[in-house]
Predict the 3D structure of the following.
Amino acid sequence: ENISKDENIASILELAKSICEKLLQDKLDCDLATYKYDFSEPINELGLEEELITHLLEDYIYQVFNSYKNFMFIIQNLQTQDTSSRDLHLVELKNLAHKNLGVARNLRIYDAQFLLSELMNNNSDIGYIRDCVEALMACAFKLDPAYAYGILKLRQIKGKL
């Protein structure tokens, strides 16, 4: 609370980059650890203007941040439920990942595509699932740190009300 908004954004961005590098490179063995989103791909391939891509990215970031709570709820259920409920929760996990994957594919967000595909296909290791979700959040923050920070601050304020 004693540092500026820009300093907060910068420190969270550094944390997000660190999480992406640690999880994507070290734990998930993926070469997208230092991936940086390129607006030109969806602009050229889809014929959309950068301003529209920016709005769609913001919608995607908001969607991922909203999905985080659901992902964590599913992970908690996978840890605490009996085997008979596990399949139901894995279906929920796949459906939530699939919902987010469509947008990531359309916008050509490659790190998110990898992580969401992993969530859909590799769901036997709960620790791995959690790492994918944490990396997904960090990667979403990197897309537009100022916008993502605004979402976090809004949630913080709503949580105090």
Summary: The mean pLDDT is 88. The helical segments are 5-27, 40-46, 50-80, 83-107, 110-121, 126-143, 145-160. The radius of gyration is 16 Å. The longest helix spans residues 50-80.
